[in-house]
Amino acid sequence: xxxxxxxxxxxxxxxxxxxxxxxxxxxxxxxxxxxxxxxxxxxxxxxxxxxxxxxxxxxxxxxxxxxxxxxxxxxxxxxxxxxxxxxxxxxxxxxxxxxxxxxxxxxxxxxxxxxxxxxxxxxxxxxxxxxxxxxxxxxxxxxxxxxxxxxxxxxxxxxxxxxxxxxxxxxxxxxxxxxxxxxxxxxxxxxxxxxxxxxxxxxxxxxxxxxxx
Length: 213
Description:
The chain is an alpha/beta fold and 213 residues long. The protein contains 10 helices and 6 strands, in the order H-H-E-H-H-E-H-E-H-E-H-E-H-E-H-H.
């Protein structure tokens, strides 16, 4: 049994525990804190709707799949827009989006400009939460998530704000990348001046240094 299977209770368990749980839930941390071997926060495990917020490249997609499994349907923005448009036209969700046990939705930036579609998507998320179906919404900007939160009771949702590591945490991460690349860990020191800092930027710098060996 993998970590995601071990951490994910069945829907009945989520429902029973959620009724005793506090609201609202706001958790912050780096992606490594959610991808390691530590148990996931209770609210993230048990509440049916989880919003994953944070800048691009911070690890939202990896964390989302840790929460619901790597084989879960993940609708990126273009596919999500098509699905919502179809529901508005035909009054039915494609691919059983309203009944799938688990679903990942990429933060829809079109919401502020398409109120009709926004209402349909908000209804989908609310219905799934009330039915105890797990939904993960990732959003780099935050504006889409804020609009969708309004239609779901606080006790049914959790919000995770992912951030990049700071200070020695960045150096530790760079050393881990050095190990994966098979290069001298002292190269990690040459990534501390990267700005803007991101996982991708550190990896690219180390690959460049590896090529210069």
